[in-house]
Design goal:
Length: 254
């Protein structure tokens, strides 16, 4: 399989996304940290959590573990990397969204947790998309910012709520997963929500994302498309934050 990736920093101080790949797998991660100034009882930031989680995922996937098992073990190891001053049981503990794809024998399998996406271009035509929108579907969200913070903490990493990777190994058991025979898969696109906003906000189709990522510039062309759309978006131009944007395209030969 051939893997191409691109990651671009948004309006923050550093990129909290990560893209990684091996001979038979690929991953994207997106740090899910608290708002600036909020104490979550930890001395580490989202970039540190993403880096540790990514390093452990590389090791576990290289050993041949299935995506959910690899993620579960990697979260546990990331929790163990924290020092005694870190409260990893805090309801707002820093985590990450994740999308993973792996070739397993004659099959291709994938996993999504948090607001990332896996887009499968099928050999017969068309695309199949796995996205995790459980946060957006929570009931009766409050309208004020203070209420949102309490509301999100109440549902985060809980049954009936939504899940992120990083502090609760059980999140891997609640990931969205899929599997197809390798012969039915032409390409797989993994992307963070900095890229999926092309679909969610700017009117692109999922098939458009695969097509754009398959051009000569590869996934970098997707980030160009995001930034181009944001430049004409009044909300972004008036100060709304550019997000980190990361995409990985996995292409399979004949």
């Amino acid at each position: 399989m051939r893997v191409r990736s691109w990651s671009a920093t948004g309006s923050g101080k550093g990129n909290e996304d990560l893209a990684a790949s091996g001979d038979r797998w690929a991953v994207v991660l997106d740090g899910a940290g608290p708002p600036a100034g909020m104490d979550v009882g930890c001395e580490h930031g989202a970039a540190w959590v993403v880096a540790r989680l990514g390093a452990h995922l590389r090791e576990r996937l290289d050993l041949g573990l299935a995506p959910a098992e690899a993620l579960r073990e990697s979260i546990g190891r990331t929790v163990a990397d924290h020092g005694p001053a870190c409260d990893t049981a805090h309801p707002r503990a820093i985590g990450a969204t994740a999308a993973v794809v792996r070739v397993a024998g004659a099959d291709v399998e994938w996993l999504v947790v948090g607001d990332a996406a896996v887009v499968i271009e099928r050999s017969s035509g068309g695309v199949a998309v796995t996205t995790d929108d459980r946060l957006a579907r929570l009931p009766d969200p409050p309208s004020d910012e203070a209420g949102v913070r309490t509301y999100v903490a109440r549902y985060r990493n809980r049954p009936g709520g939504f899940w992120v990777a990083g502090a609760v190994p059980e999140a891997a058991d609640h990931a969205l997963t899929g599997r197809l025979p390798r012969t039915e898969v032409r390409r797989v696109l993994l992307c963070t929500n900095g890229v999926t906003r092309l679909v969610e906000r700017y009117g692109y189709a999922w098939a458009d994302l695969v097509r754009i990522a398959s051009t000569g510039r590869g996934p970098a062309a997707l980030v160009d498309a995001v930034r181009g759309a944001e430049c004409t978006d009044p909300e972004v131009r008036s100060g709304r934050r550019h997000d980190d944007a990361t995409a990985v395209l996995v292409e399979f030969g004949d």
